[in-house]
Write a structure and sequence with these properties.
Helices cover 12% and strands 22% of the residues. By secondary structure, the protein is α/β, with parallel strands linked by helices.
Length: 954
């Protein structure tokens, strides 16, 4: 079959094969037989090529690239063609595919094809299986599915990420009378039209497997269509659909059902009791819904499947109750109940040995002691983190020889084993954060040679790291020993981690909040996350320049004793997103090579000794969201490019530097800014009148409380849902008179601080538009004019400091309407007139108005001109002067007061006395009331008499 051999070699010429997948294809003498080539299969009877299988689903190799050559048309006996999970194309699916008439199986899924799916595929009338689709939506399209009706022998049809939302898909599929498997995933299907449902004849379709995940199906229409197949359906996948409402009882009539997946579907209520009829059920997945109920009742509902159920996936719901003895389900292999509200303790014992391999109870409210799990000898994955388990971990856990994943984090557990304890397992992932392992470094870890991820943070360890630890496992990709009291110096780590792996090579190292000292050592060049903050490292960071920063995405060296200049070697750090060097002793200029950090989202150089101007190269860092350069010695002007190029900024702080010049009007282009701090500099000129363009400060709705940064495509999920490649932003903010670091609530702050500069002119009227502003500090400048009348429009304002300026005029009434105002300082200005009367403004101490000679009225002691004597009898709201309050009370205590009390009591008593004699019911009620009044009057009179005596006698 020489022509078929030549056709395959011609096909190979158009392929980029970096990993040598097709290395067995060739003209050499030992490669003459094409039937022995990788992926090629020939007929035993005729010798013709009948199968070409180059799928790469496991991504063991780098995908093949290139184009599909028409030479495949010479393979006229080809019945099986699978090119899935490669990178063929970046072009359209070739039309000539429709001429391979012998094909029975065609799989072109997950390639780089785009454009319209050719209708010529409808010519493949012998097809039994057809799989098409892409990785991303909208890459592939289809005008209609009428050509599908010609594939009458089709048994399997899958299409994914192709928009079918505006075409009729139900009628063509209904004509496929032999169809047993149907997959229309992430195709934008809006639901099933009721009129289309009436026209559909479903009686002849023996559908057994149905996957409609990732569409927009709602419950009403979908269920009506679905239940037409109740006698044939075996597998149903409908995850990621907005079904909503309760699960219908009718599912219980699908007695052949083996797999049901309704995850991410906004379902509510309890699991129907009709599920007791599902005796063949093998897998039930209801992950991420709003389902409720008692867990013991749920297991009882599923009791009919006790011999068949293998997977129960109920994560992220609202199930409650205690954990029953689930070993009754003799085939159960995976039990996932994390993120629910389970309570109580584990069963005291389990009834029988179980084949369970995965037990996930993460983030519940389970309490009591840790269970003995010897009934689960096949257990590989154990996740019990974030519960309330307490006590010592039993040494019997070491008998679980198949265990590879162990998460006991955030419990009250103590891991204290005998010196000769030798566990039989070899763990891949270990998460013991917030468990008690210390004070000594856990010796049993020495036997674990395959660890890929290890977290022993916050474990009470106050020891040095033994030398054997650094050679523990060449596979280590994630290491977190933070928040302990580990001390000593770090060794050379550049050769301690295996960097030969490709996709797994990125390394995460978190040593923050310990007591490490000495210089930062040489580090592995494959590190993507490096957190050495809050230690006692000294010296320079020149060691980072030895190719370490090439793969870094996250670098935090803050809160150490590092010094010298920051080396100008950042050209190769193009992946860096987080750079935090705050609270050290760095000096010199900011490196100009920072401008090559075009992925940078956060730059914190706070509290160092940097000098000079900002390098203009930073205008290339257009992804920056947080810039904190406070407490340095930076000089020059605030560059205009900050507003024109760094448009994503939410936090900008140059607090306590030596910057001068004017505030550039371009700063008003920062639509996302929430914290703008230019305080304690030498900035002059007027406040820009364009501040009303600061869109985020106009919005009254808060953003999320915590600002996270990180590349979502590079999340690390070694420990289930926990992600380690994110960083929580922080900034130094003056709030209510104190300078504090805000981290978890940074996203809630909306502040402008221009204090302690040389600003002149008036307060711009446009500031009144910033209705979302919470704090405004313009103090210690040379501002003149009046407080803007519209100040009351900033309704959420909690902090206002205008002190030590040259402001004048009256305090506007709008200030009195700021109901959230809790910090106010108008001192040392030239305000005049009466302080507006309001509960808010009179509640402040008089010191907030001090230094304004012509200001009068409460809470100041000086009265306003024209006030009558009666005004002096009003009680003062100055909370700081108790003696004055007492004297004001005493002015009300006169002889007339006591005469009035006596007369009132006498008249009141006899006025009621006669009616009381006539009606016994009135008499009883009145006497009880008067008894209470008499007691109150007696106490009040006694207190005031004591005050009068104190005034008369001394």
């Amino acid at each position: 079959m020489q022509n078929e051999r030549e056709a395959l070699l011609e096909f190979k010429k158009g392929i980029v094969d970096n990993d040598g997948i097709l290395s067995s294809w060739g003209n050499e003498e030992d490669k003459r037989d094409c039937c022995r080539w990788r992926g090629v299969k020939c007929s035993n009877r005729t010798g013709h090529v009948i199968s070409l299988d180059l799928q790469n689903e496991e991504y063991i190799f780098e995908p093949l690239r290139g184009k599909i050559n028409p030479s495949l048309l010479d393979l006229q006996h080809l019945t099986y063609l699978d090119l899935s999970f490669n990178r063929f194309g970046e072009s359209r699916i070739p039309n000539f595919i429709g001429s391979l008439h012998s094909l029975r199986y065609l799989n072109l899924q997950y390639n780089d094809f785009f454009g319209a799916i050719p209708h010529q595929i409808g010519n493949l009338t012998n097809l039994r299986s057809l799989r098409l689709g892409h990785y991303y939506p909208s890459a592939l399209s289809v005008e209609n599915l009428e050509w599908l009706s010609d594939l009458r022998l089709l048994r399997q049809f899958e299409i994914s990420y192709v928009d079918l939302g505006n075409i009729d898909w139900l009628q063509p599929i209904n004509k496929l009378s032999f169809l047993t498997e149907l997959g229309l995933t992430y195709c934008g299907l809006p639901g099933i039209n009721h009129s289309s449902l009436l026209l559909t004849n479903l009686s002849s379709t023996p559908l057994a497997v149905l996957d409609l995940s990732g569409n927009s199906f709602t419950s009403s229409s979908t269920y009506n269509w679905l239940f037409n197949f109740s006698s044939t359906l075996v597998v149903i996948y409908m995850r990621h659909n907005p079904l909503g409402g309760p699960i219908p009882d009718v599912f219980g009539n699908m007695i052949s059902l083996e797999t049901l997946d309704l995850s991410f579907s906004s379902l509510e209520g309890e699991i129907p009791k009709s599920f007791k009829n599902l005796s063949c059920l093998r897998s039930l997945s209801l992950f991420e819904n709003n389902l409720v109920g008692q867990l013991p009742d749920l297991f009882q509902t599923l009791i009919a499947s006790k011999n068949s159920l293998e997977t129960l996936e109920l994560r992220s719901n609202e199930f409650r109750g205690s954990l029953p003895d689930f070993t009754r389900f003799s085939s159960l292999k995976e039990l996932r109940l994390s993120y629910n509200k389970l309570q109580g303790s584990f069963p005291k014992s389990f009834g029988q040995t179980s084949p369970l391999s995965i037990l996930d109870l993460f983030d519940n409210e389970l309490n009591g002691s840790f269970p003995h799990l010897t009934s689960f000898p096949l257990l590989t994955h154990l996740s019990l983190g974030r519960n309330k388990l307490k006590g010592r971990l039993p040494e019997s856990i070491g008998q679980l020889s198949n265990l590879t994943f162990l998460d006991l984090s955030s419990n009250l557990l103590t891991l204290e084993f005998s010196s000769n304890w030798a566990p039989l397992f070899q763990l891949d992932c270990v998460n013991l954060c917030n468990c008690k392992l210390g004070p000594h470094f856990p010796e049993w870890l020495r036997s674990q040679n395959n660890i890929k991820a290890l977290d022993i943070s916050s474990a009470g360890i106050s020891d040095t790291i033994p030398n054997w630890f650094w050679d523990l496992s060449p596979r280590l990709r994630y290491l977190n020993i933070s928040d302990n009291q580990i001390h000593g110096m770090l060794p050379d780590l550049s050769l301690k981690f295996d960097t030969s792996l490709k996709f797994e090579a990125l390394l995460i190292i978190d040593f923050h909040s310990n007591r490490f000292k000495g210089p930062i050592p040489l580090l592995p060049h494959s590190a993507s996350t490096l957190n050495l903050s809050k230690n006692k490292f000294t010296g320079s960071i020149i060691s980072l320049c030895t190719n370490v920063i090439k793969f870094l995405r996250y670098l935090d060296l803050s809160n150490n004793l590092l010094s010298s200049e920051v080396p100008d070697c950042w050209i190769s750090a193009s992946r860096l997103q987080i750079l935090d060097l705050a609270n050290n002793n760095f000096s010199g200029r900011i490196p100009s090579s920072f401008g090559f950090l075009n992925m940078l989202q956060l730059l914190s150089l706070r509290n160092n000794n940097f000098i000079g101007e900002l390098p203009s190269s930073l205008n290339k860092c257009t992804r920056l969201e947080v810039v904190d350069m406070s407490k340095n010695k930076l000089s020059g002007k605030i560059p205009a490019w900050i507003g024109t190029h760094l448009r994503r900024l939410t936090v900008l702080s140059f607090r306590r530097n030596e910057l001068g010049g004017n505030i550039p009007p371009s700063i008003c282009s920062l639509n996302s800014i929430q914290v703008l701090d230019l305080s304690q500099n030498k900035i002059s000129g007027n406040i820009p009148q364009c501040f009303n363009k600061l869109y985020s400060l106009i919005q009254t709705k808060n953003s999320s409380a915590t600002t996270y940064f990180g590349d979502e495509t590079q999340e690390f999920t070694y420990f289930d849902e926990q992600t380690f490649s994110v960083y929580m932003a922080a900034a130094l903010v003056q709030w209510k008179g104190k300078v504090l670091e805000y981290r978890r609530t940074l996203g809630l702050l909306k502040c402008i601080d221009l204090s302690s500069n040389k600003l002149v002119g008036k307060i711009p009227q446009e500031l009144a538009s910033l209705t979302g502003l919470i704090s405004l500090n313009l103090s210690r400048n040379n501002l003149k004019g009046k407080i803007i009348q519209e100040i009351g429009q900033i309704e959420k304002l909690e902090v206002l400091d205008l002190s030590e300026n040259q402001l004048s005029g009256e305090i506007p009434m709008g200030l009195a309407s700021l109901n959230f105002l809790c910090v106010l300082d108008l001192s040392s200005n030239n305000f005049s007139g009466k302080i507006p009367s309001s509960t808010q403004l009179q509640s402040f101490d008089g010191s907030v108005y001090a230094g304004n000679r012509e200001l009068c009225g409460p809470p100041l002691p000086n009265k306003c001109a024209g006030e009558d004597e009666s005004a002096s009898l009003l009680p003062s709201t100055n909370h700081g002067k108790d003696k004055t309050n007492e004297e004001d009370d005493d002015r009300l205590v006169t002889i007339g007061f006591y005469v009035s009390v006596v007369l009132g009591f006498t008249v009141g008593f006899w006025g009621f006395f006669i009616p009381l004699l006539l009606r016994s019911s009135w008499r009883d009620a009145y006497l009880k009331l008067l008894d209470k009044i008499k007691d109150w009057i007696y106490v009040t009179a006694a207190v005031n008499m004591a005050r009068l005596q104190r005034k008369v006698w001394g």
